[in-house]
Every structure is written in structure tokens, then in C-alpha cells.
């Protein structure tokens, strides 16, 4: 393996994982982050067993597993508390876990030496020739690298340069999230989702008796009505949902509720342009319906590192492109489909959807996400 000088743009989950793995395997890595700190705004995250299995050969896997809460199934109910189906999580050799986003980020940070993370460096543009890329930052800094990893998220500057027409696509719904300390309405390895005409409400166990909750409601992009939503508005909105939902919202503090409109991007044809590689949300932002966005970013990082350890750089990038474009396209499209079905609001369509969910076996539901376990990592 030839040691390379590598820049990673973005210190999110994708960027830090990639930087940590490439540094661990002997590369000269620098991370550039536009913000002036690494603090995270976030609540809970699901990390699939597919992701932990991929990460297993590397040091950071252990700590992530230790901090995670094993999750074994997800129960789907209607807003009237009628049982619809159960999704049994594929375990293989690893657990599916839930984890605080901040905790995950803290773990990833410890795998990249502090002096290699450059804050307040917003990438402005790049120029590349056959085997190097020159980076220009808004603060006037310029530097040349053998390889640049664009892990700069949904609104990636580098993706815009390579694919000017690839813009975030609004999914049609908005999402609120929070974390509370409250007794679980079900056992600590089971998540619950309630689907009703007013939206979806999810209750997900975290470690140490905490609960991560989220809800989605159909809305216009940047809908002003929801921008001013606070705890009492959510309580009123979901007051016809089961008691479990109302109890969670009652336990939520007035502050600390996160709100985001939901986006993905249309699948790209390639993640590689010369010596620039797109990774994570920059490459394949997906809606959160499968809980796989961060997980797929981690899988990208593992695949790229595995390949760079074994192959000359051009062959490694070609193979990364071939494996990751195809796999993440399936995640984007499947996740979009789940979101569409979950946000249905006409009474007739809800009736048909719920009937279909009730008659499907739990096994057939799990089969639909089986492909997640089959990602090739080199
Ligand atoms: C409501 C919701 C729930 C979710 N739930 C889950 C879940 O359960 N499981 C899961 O796996 N995923 C989940 N996700 C998805 C997950 O959060 C993302 O897929 C993941 O954070 C992407 O990581 P990333 O590193 O690619 O991008 P980001 O986390 O967006 O990081 C990008 C970084 O790049 C920096 N940056 C941007 N532009 C520049 C620039 N020009 N120069 C320098 N730095 C720059 C940003 O400041 C940021 O720090 C969820 C997402 C949402 C919205």
C-alpha cells in the first residue's frame, strides 16, 4: 500500500469514520470542517448490524458496540394502537444498536488526532490534474493532496461542482425529534412506530433508560406552521394517538426538540471524479426511514479503506464506485418508498395499506431489507 496524502472534507459521521480508518491504516490524513467546533446537534441514531459487521475489523467498532443499546425488533401499530406487523432485525453475528449521535461522534473523534482536524475551514473550490487535487478554502488556505474525500453532507460543495444538477429533493414531510427519560411502553430491545393519517410517531429505546422519539408529518417545504411548533403544539397534534405517545411528549422538556425537513438526493451514476471521492450524504443522502444514512456512510468508509489497503489507487476507486453506487441506490429508493407509504393520509389508502401490512408475514417484511446484509466491502 502506498501512503497517500488525503484530505477529508467534513467532520460528520462519514468524514470522521473515514479519517479514523485511513489514519489507522497508515495514510497522512487531514480533516477540514467549516464549523468552528465539533459539537453535534442530534438525538438518537440506529446503527444496523450490517454496519457493525463491516466495522468489526477496525478498532472503533468495540467502543461503538459498548455504547449501543441492542435493538432486536420494530413493532408497527396504527394510531389506534392496532398491531400491524413486526420487523425482526437481522442479527447475523452482530447486534443492531441505537446510540446517541453525540456519543457516536465522540467515539469517532478519538480516532483522529486532534491536530489533524482543521476547524473553520470551509472548502470553496478545487482544481485537479491527473494525480492530485488542489483545495482552496474560504479563509485563504490552499493545499495540494493525492486524494480528496468529500464527506460534506447533503448540501455538498464538491457534489455541486461535479453534478451541478444534483440538488436535495424534499421528501414531502417534516420531522421532530427528542430524547426523554421515561419508562418504556415495551421491552428495551423493541422499537415502536405508530402510523396514522396525521403522521408517524416512533419510540426507540436508548442505553441507560432513555428513549429517542421522532415524529413525521406531511408538510410543505419550509412550512411556516411547523417552524414555530413547540412541545404544546406537538402534544395537541398527537393527542389522538395512544397513551404511550402522549406520555413521551409529556416527558419531553420544553427545549431540546429538533426539527428538520426531510430530504434525499436522486441516486448518482458515480461517486468518483478523478481524485475526488464522494462519501456519505454527499454521495447518497437518503430519507431516514430505514435508519441507514449514517450507517451507509460508515460502510462507505470501511469499503474505501479495505480497497485502498489491497489495490493500487485507481483500481480501488473504481471498485468503490462499482460497489457503493449500486448498493446505496437501493437504500435511497427503498427508504423513499417506505416514507411514501408511511405518510399516506387518505382514509381509503390507509385502510388498504394497513390491511396489506397485517396480512404480510413478519418474515416477508424482513426479507425486503435483507439486501442490507449483503453489501460487498471490497
Ligand atoms: C431526522 C433524521 C434521522 C436520522 N436517523 C438516522 C438513523 O437512525 N440511522 C442512521 O444511520 N442515519 C440516520 N440519519 C441520517 C444521518 O444523520 C446522516 O446520513 C449522516 O449524519 C450523514 O453523515 P455525513 O458525515 O455524510 O454528513 P453530515 O453529518 O452532514 O456531515 C457533513 C459535515 O461537513 C461539513 N461541511 C459541509 N460543507 C462543508 C465545506 N464546504 N467545507 C468544510 N466542511 C463542510 C458540515 O459542517 C458537517 O460537519 C438521520 C437523518 C435525519 C435527518
TrEMBL record:
Q: Which keywords describe this protein according to UniProt? A: FAD, Flavoprotein, Oxidoreductase
Q: Which co-factor is required?
A: FAD
Q: What would you give as a GO molecular function for this chain, any one? A: 6-hydroxynicotinate 3-monooxygenase activity
Q: Which organism is it from?
A: Mammaliicoccus stepanovicii
What name appears for this protein in its UniProt entry? Salicylate hydroxylase
Enzyme class, broadest EC rank? oxidoreductase
Q: Give its E.C. classification number.
A: 1.14.13.1, 1.14.13.114
- Where do the FAD-binding domain residues begin and end? 4-331
Please name one Pfam family that this protein belongs to. Answer: FAD_binding_3
- The reply on keyword Cell inner membrane is no
